Amino acid sequence: MRLIILITGIILSTISYGQTSLKEINLNSGKYIVGFKHYTAIDSTRIYRIHNEFNNQYINRPIPISIWYPATIDNNNSKQLSVLNYLEILKGEEEWKNLPNDFLLDWFPYLWNTPENKAHLPEKVVAFSNSTFLDGKFPVVVYAPSYQASSIENFALFEYLASNGFVVISSPSRGTNSRWLEGGTTKDMETQSRDVEFLLKEIHKYENIDLDRIALMGFSFGGLSNAITVMKHKNVSAIVSLDGTERYNYAVLEKSPFFKLDKFNIPYIHFAQKEIPKEVLTSDKIPAELNYKFQLYDSLKYSNVYSYKFHDLTHSYFSSFGVLFANRDKRQDKSDYKIMASYNLLCKHTLQFLSATLKNEKKASDFIENKPNENGFSEALISKKMKKSIKTEFTYKDFNDLAFNQDYQGLIPLYKRTIAKHPNLQLQEGILNTLGLRLSFNYKKIEQGVNVFLLALHLYPKSANLYDSLAEAYLYNKDFKNAIFNYKKSLELNPENQNAIDRLKQLKE
């Protein structure tokens, strides 16, 4: 467990203070105004104890949620936020909501009270509070933070993505029953994975989120939690790992009861830190294999996998907090200028990958497939390796899993997206007919059954039997008008359909 804690946040004996700013990171926003809101939802399936409550009672698990989105603003009510506003959210998530702001930089061990860090507090950020979701449907990125970190730890990246037409939603990294994790155990990973799953349900509350375009993204321990989450969920389309711990502690992943590599079959990109110098490996007792071993990358067969190494970034600087507030390790860290420039490139590469996988933008796809020098970057700055997935047969069962996960809604668009990726997919008429009837004769699933028949008729528009079955579904639902219409359609295709003849006679009487 010590390994994860070292990788997540080494306490350095040789430090210097960094001087950075949001302006110097120089992330030029996209075309959208960025809205932001923060609120707390409740997971009634789990219990939790707040660290600084005096009654020591267990309550239903609170899930603080931060969300960034393309927005419109009201000049009278919307307010451009500052770094301090984000840190006030951090106070609440750290369960010190009543802590005076003057104590912020003294209270938390990763926010050193230096003149350089104080200078960040009044800096204006891109996002606006009290703003309205822009009309439209936007892809969503569900974010898992690093070990015991805040939902807003990577706010500059989140704002950048939102300004380019993505929604980003995040919640803090918390232990199973309290604020504290156990030390990077499989139990900790499963707890954070359940929080990610909670967010995957929460996004259904937003009509402006496109539920067919979902990616997971995580930093450090959050990358490990996301890796197990995608093995449980078929409705995720891509995964981004910001120096994720799945690279450093694969054994934690393997211990999960949900661990199943063949379920990890979506595009995956991992951005890794620079090589750790021998001096640091020795003094901090870090295994040398961390510089070259990547068991998950080597093991994945059914994903397109991309692995980048940023040669000017150590682990802490894969987050906005790290770039702005973390002390510098003089043994290995590059200059502030190089750190900010590489963080800028990290954000841009993340945007390109998400635009390629969630928006299907050809220019972005080309960018991700190219070598770094083909995109204009020296390999002294960024190096890359990649491998393509082994093609596997995509079956009716796989499609039904996708349909089930979206409650059999939007099946025709789902089929069109799926057949584009898996052109050999075959959905047999008889299987769809049986599924439609099974659902339709369950009074709680009649709508879903009708949706299956509509997909089946999209594929087999001249099937008298499908029209007859759809009519049966409507009849069972006492929707006589649609029942009559579809029995007649069935008879047009098969005038000898005795069931339709008998049913129409009964309905006429």
List the helices and strands and how they pair.
Elements: H1 2-8, E1 15-16, H2 22-25, E2 33-48, E3 59-73, E4 79-82, H3 83-93, H4 104-107, H5 115-118, E5 124-129, E6 131-133, E7 138-144, H6 155-163, E8 167-170, H7 186-202, E9 209-219, H8 221-230, E10 238-242, H9 250-254, E11 268-272, H10 278-283, H11 295-299, E12 305-310, H12 320-325, E13 328-329, H13 336-358, H14 362-369, E14 382-387, H15 396-405, H16 411-421, H17 429-440, H18 446-459, H19 464-476, H20 480-493, H21 498-508
Parallel strand pairs: 7-8, 7-9, 9-10, 10-11, 11-12
Antiparallel strand pairs: 1-13, 2-3, 3-6, 3-8, 4-5, 12-14
Structural features, described:
- With 509 residues, this protein is of the alpha/beta class.
- Helix content is 40%, strand content 18%.
- It contains 21 helices and 14 strands.
- The chain has helices at 2-8, 22-25, 83-93, 104-107, 115-118, 155-163, 186-202, 221-230, 250-254, 278-283, 295-299, 320-325, 336-358, 362-369, 396-405, 411-421, 429-440, 446-459, 464-476, 480-493, 498-508; strands spanning 15-16, 33-48, 59-73, 79-82, 124-129, 131-133, 138-144, 167-170, 209-219, 238-242, 268-272, 305-310, 328-329, 382-387.
- The strands form three sheets. Strands 2, 3, 6, 7, 8, 9, 10, 11, 12 and 14 form a ten-stranded mixed β-sheet that branches.
- Strand 9, helix 8 and strand 10 form a beta-alpha-beta unit.
- Helix 17 (429-440) runs parallel beside helix 19 (464-476).
